[in-house]
């Protein structure tokens, strides 16, 4: 009798769910390259992301505009810091819930992230509907070469390698050797914009503060081979466990968007020209941090550390 029940349950499961699974697999295969081709943003999803509304209320997340970004130019916006889950960048640019398009009229916002995120069924669709695609030169070119100006694509420059090093109260940014975004900006004539998320590194704690060397090496190996790495993090517990849980630590999250650095189109820049533009970007980012840090409780002695 038990076997009959189990077999009946198995047949019912296969009968009802197999067509959906097979249909999704066919769709997954058909659209496998879409994350690298501008994805498929949905204004409805971006404007009705209730989970981002909850997140905004939880973190009291605000976007702070410091300068105009005219819609007759394209932009690459550098997001710093990455943090463990990149909450600030995703909430600001992959959702309209915090007023990004109201503050910057005429801009169409995009975000790019590691390609490994688009290997996860259903998650890939939610990311693409939000205007997120894979971080690749080809994808950036497709976005920035659209007929309409006003394309603003944001990148968490430090990536997962920076994320696994993040910890509350620290401002370590993997930026010193990250120059690919500068080369793309120069080749496409897109202005560079620094953006800093105050409170990003305070939303979670790594398992052991700054992760031990072996754990960091293991995570870096996973990132290199799979395109992303599940973070080792500790947040708050919903039931009061002393060792914490997975709920983000409730902190004040502010996204401060800086002034654009004008970039002239140069399809074949020399290394010296790239280095000069990269230095200008780093200086503007540090200036943005120093100008606003006192407003968000950052001690005067704390500085950005570029590595």
UniProtKB/TrEMBL annotation:
The chain crosses the membrane at residues 12-30. Pfam families: DAGAT. It is found in: Endoplasmic reticulum membrane. Its EC number is 2.3.1.-. It comes from the Eukaryota. It is an enzyme of class 2 (transferase). It is a multi-pass membrane protein. One of its GO terms (molecular function) is diacylglycerol O-acyltransferase activity. Keywords: Acyltransferase, Endoplasmic reticulum, Glycerol metabolism, Lipid biosynthesis, Lipid metabolism, Membrane, Transferase, Transmembrane, Transmembrane helix. Pathway: Lipid metabolism; Glycerolipid metabolism; triacylglycerol biosynthesis. GO terms for biological process: glycerol metabolic process; triglyceride biosynthetic process. The keyword Membrane applies. GO terms for cellular component: endoplasmic reticulum membrane. Belongs to the diacylglycerol acyltransferase family. This is Acyltransferase. It comes from Pristionchus entomophagus.
């Amino acid at each position: 009798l038990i076997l009959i029940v189990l077999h009946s349950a198995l047949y019912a499961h296969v009968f009802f769910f197999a067509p959906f699974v097979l249909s999704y697999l066919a769709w997954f295969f058909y659209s496998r390259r879409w994350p690298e081709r501008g994805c498929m943003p949905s204004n409805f999803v971006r404007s009705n992301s209730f989970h981002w509304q909850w997140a905004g209320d939880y973190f009291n997340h605000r976007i702070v505009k410091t300068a105009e970004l005219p819609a007759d130019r394209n932009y690459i916006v550098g997001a710093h810091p990455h943090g463990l889950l990149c909450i600030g960048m995703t909430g600001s640019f992959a959702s309209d819930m915090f007023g990004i398009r109201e503050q910057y009229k005429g801009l169409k916002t995009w975000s790019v992230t590691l390609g490994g995120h688009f290997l996860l069924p259903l998650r890939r669709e939610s990311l693409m509907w939000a205007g997120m695609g894979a971080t690749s030169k080809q994808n950036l070119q497709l976005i920035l070469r659209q007929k309409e100006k006003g394309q603003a694509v944001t990148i968490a420059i430090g990536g997962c390698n920076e994320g696994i090093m993040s910890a509350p109260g620290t401002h370590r940014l993997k930026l010193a050797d990250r120059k690919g975004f500068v080369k793309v900006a120069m080749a496409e004539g897109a202005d560079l914009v620094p953006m800093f998320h105050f409170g990003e590194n305070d939303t979670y704690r790594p398992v052991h503060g700054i992760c031990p060397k072996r754990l960091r090496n293991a995570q870096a190996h996973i990132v290199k081979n799979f395109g992303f790495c599940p973070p080792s993090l500790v947040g708050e517990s919903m039931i009061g466990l002393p060792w914490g849980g997975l709920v983000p630590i409730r902190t004040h999250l502010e996204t401060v968007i800086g002034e654009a650095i004008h970039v002239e189109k140069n399809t074949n820049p020399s290394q010296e020209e790239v280095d000069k533009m990269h230095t200008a970007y780093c200086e503007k980012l540090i200036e943005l941090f120093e100008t606003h840090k006192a407003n968000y409780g950052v001690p005067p002695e704390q500085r950005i550390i570029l590595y």
